[in-house]
Give the backbone structure.
Amino acid sequence: MSASTLPSSDRPAGLATPRNLILPALCVFALFLAFSVLRVPVPAPNEPHYLAKAQHYWDKEFCPGDFFLDSANTHRVFYHTVGWATRFLTLAQTAIVGRIVALLLLAVGWTAFVSRLLPGRWGSLWSAAVFLAISATGNFSGEWIVGGVEAKVFSYAFVFFGLAFLFERRWIVAGLSTGLAISFHPVVGIWAVAAAVFAGAVRQFAKRSDLPTLGEPVSRGVAAKQIILATVALVVASLPGLIPALNVVGSAAPEVQFQADYIVVFYRLKHHLNPMDFTWRQYSGYAILWYLWLFVELRRQSIQRAEAWNRWFVFGAMFIAFAGLVVGLDERTGKEMPFYAERMKLMKFYPFRLADVMLPIACSITLVRLALTARAGEGDVGANQSQRGSRFAWLLCAACMIFALTVPSRVLPSRPTAKAIARKDDWKEACRWISKNAPADALFLTPHNSVAFKWYAQRAEYVALKDCPQDAAGIVEWNRRLLYRTDWGRRYFDNGYSAEALREFQQTTKVTHMLATRQLNVPLEPIHSNEHFRVYRLGDLP
């Protein structure tokens, strides 16, 4: 059933036609792209991680022998699609093209989704602006959708498409879109499906089923058939990304899986997964957003069908997040937690990420709806001038609260100091020298806090803190390498490293070169140096 044939009671007043949404979608895209470029210059923190793996997926001669790049490919659809561009473009160029494509898809999906919820032509643009303003204040569990390019940006775009089609009862296309969301990022897509099922179950229980009644021209059997076909489309579209993810989940022995879960939940990704690691500001900020949105929603007398679906979808996302809090909140962590093994398995699937995005989106849509209502002097049926004034005062109060949340977090990143800029420039210069002069199969020991080494140097690393694999065996090996490097450093460091210490590390790890800070004393002549960094060939050890 198309939008033009929807019953009037199911459509927001003044619903824009698809042709009228082209310009707003382009404006939303321009806004997303500007926000991405200004806040997260290329490369974004995650782009070297994902795009280097995407290039290695297509070209095994890129950084051969790199432990992380050789690990399991869980985001295979992203590597296969976006990674294809690395055959013709540099990593930086791939990031730029990837951002443009991902954010354009996200903007169109956003516009299709929001246009079903707000009247008029420009609601999607105003809500996008409010959402980005809220995003600038921070988030609850580290989730974002406008920044660098990675698999989840595409996944959220398809989630928005799926919701837009769901609002219009276009079940098969909605299922296909959601399946593509799962294919690009299984965790994002599956949580979206769970929230949609929750919304549908609540509406069914509340006697608001979308199956036609006996008095309508379309039979229940036809509608049920469409839902079955939609489910088939969802499953088929999700398989290219779901199968690799499922293979990784069950690929390790139970004891190895337990170690990997512990490392991920309580160490590597605790800022995303462990609610005990979240700050008071994260809790208070999202509590305010939750109160603002809930206060308005519960006071609304009548809502359209799409708005009801979206309301319960957000409630579903929040329910999942609340379950994550129940599972993760404890005055103790790790092995002292009751049923800690089972709880870790649940916590590692990012229960907060969908709510982390959907609650700010819901608040932005609500605030724009209030603004449009106040501007038009319209409200609920029977609203008088006093009620409209009260509504406008509440809107002003909400805007002030969001501004107060925004103050501690600058909309644009602060300018780095001259010293930090010089150090970063020297890091890039050393890495680019390595890319031109070091052997293609070189294996490097890099500083503990190295960033984007493979991006600039195009050479393999022994281990990098940022580059943690996603399969259980790889996670355990990554942790072992970090622990060995730390233990070796503690045993041998004495204002530098002796030849014997470096020889032991080389024999154990098979590294061939080392990139170190200039202040580190090493009994070797560097093969390259600048003001901050030096490059050593460990084969030159006496």
The beta strands are 443-445, 460-461, 513-517, 528-529, 533-537. The chain has two domains: 14-406, 418-540.
